[in-house]
Design a protein that fits this description.
Elements lengths: L5 H20 L4 H13 L6 H11 L1 H7 L2 H10 L9 E6 L5 H8 L5 E8 L2 H17 L3 E5 L3 E5 L4 E8 L2 H6 L7 E7 L7 H9 L2 E20 L4 H17 L1 E2 L2 E2 L5 H10 L4 E7 L2 E3 L10 H16 L7 H16 L4 E12 L3
Parallel strand pairs: 1-2, 1-6, 2-5, 6-7
Antiparallel strand pairs: 3-4, 4-5, 7-12, 8-9, 10-12, 11-12
């Protein structure tokens, strides 16, 4: 549910009433009328960009759950050392976001006793991680206690995980003088396409103990599909330009993994003499069932469309009128539970050299 400002909502009521009355009196197709009214009533300008991003991260958890390659996951569970009170795993996650990967690792019974360091550069995400983890633990009957130095402890009779919440720039963290290859497992989930893998991969490996593991998941690999097709030529051009925008992206004066990160990772890992133990597809596939999307996946789709719109608005290769119409039609298809979305990704499990 969206966070709402009561005062703002009250001030917005006359506008909402006018718009509802206006569209009610228009002689337009009933289905379009319903969609317009629904968008008006759901409109909430008090939701900030940060809040929308947090909601996106939350809404994609169910999408990620389906997408993660099960063969790679099983390979990880078999390759991990057994964790116990006497032998706790040390885990380092880069780009940890709001904590959905840790939730999954515990829910799917991969982690029981561990020290988990969650790194993200965004203060808002780190704060949401803390609050969300407390709610998640309470819903499962776990003890959750806040500890000193930005840490917290999750505990049951079968689970004990010490979490360290660390707001830090990944490049700064990895370039620091390393105190030793101490981590049993490194994780980067839907993250490597956002960084320069030529820099991050070798430095990340240097933080992992000899024969330790990297679990690199949902690495975008070059294809996005929206169905049904609207205009095949325009559809193709928009998605080509969107992929190109990823390849051209510069963040803090650095290149990023781009639109073919999945396949590029194989080459980057060869340069550090690491072995790929398992790999497989982890495609995002979102589709409606019984005229609705699962969980909050409509929010996920709206965010993806908004991202494409922001990235390509004003692009000289696009007829902007046609592009705006395309974006609006896709949003309408989400509202009417008609849009199907597919994005190609790869998961990799890596053994770091001795």
């Amino acid at each position: 549910m969206k966070n709402r400002s009561p005062q703002f909502s009250l001030n917005l009521l006359p506008l909402r009433f006018f718009l509802v009355l206006f569209f009610h009196r228009l002689k337009i197709h009933p289905r379009l009328n319903r969609l317009l009214l629904k968008r008006i009533m759901e409109f909430d300008a008090s939701e900030t960009q940060q809040q929308r991003y947090v909601r996106y991260l939350s809404s994609k958890k169910s999408v990620d759950d389906r997408a993660l390659n099960k063969y790679v996951w099983v390979s990880l569970s078999e390759a991990l050392p057994k964790n116990s009170p006497a032998s706790r795993l040390k885990v380092l996650e880069l780009g940890a976001g709001i904590g959905t990967m840790l939730e999954r690792l515990v829910d799917w019974k991969l982690l029981t006793f561990a020290e988990y360091t969650a790194v993200d550069s965004d203060a808002n995400s780190v704060g949401e991680f803390r609050g969300r983890m407390a709610r998640w633990a309470a819903a499962r009957g776990f003890d959750f206690s806040v500890r000193p130095k930005n840490t917290a402890l999750i505990r049951t009779q079968e689970v004990e995980i010490l979490i360290k919440f660390l707001q830090a720039d990944v490049y700064d963290l990895l370039s620091r003088e390393n105190t030793g290859r101490q981590w049993d497992l490194g994780i980067a989930h839907a993250f490597m396409d956002l960084v320069d893998i030529g820099v991050v991969v070798p430095q990340f490996c240097n933080f992992i103990r000899p024969a330790g593991l990297l679990y690199l998941t949902l690495n975008y690999d070059g294809e996005t599909i929206f169905l049904p097709e609207l205009h095949p030529t325009l559809d193709k051009l928009i998605l080509q330009l969107y992929n190109q925008s990823m390849d051209d992206r510069i963040t803090d004066h650095r290149i990023t993994g781009g639109s073919q990160t999945g396949r590029k990772l194989f080459g980057s890992l060869m340069t550090v003499d690491a072995s790929v133990l398992a790999a497989g597809g982890s495609d995002w596939i979102v589709f409606p069932a019984s005229q609705r999307y699962p969980e909050d996946e409509s929010s996920f789709l709206h965010y993806i469309l908004d991202t494409i719109h922001t990235e390509l608005k004003g692009h000289p290769a696009l007829d902007q009128t046609a592009f705006e119409s395309w974006i609006q039609t896709r949003h309408d298809q989400v509202e009417s539970a008609e849009l199907i979305f597919i994005a190609k990704n790869l998961d990799l499990l890596v053994r770091v050299s001795d």
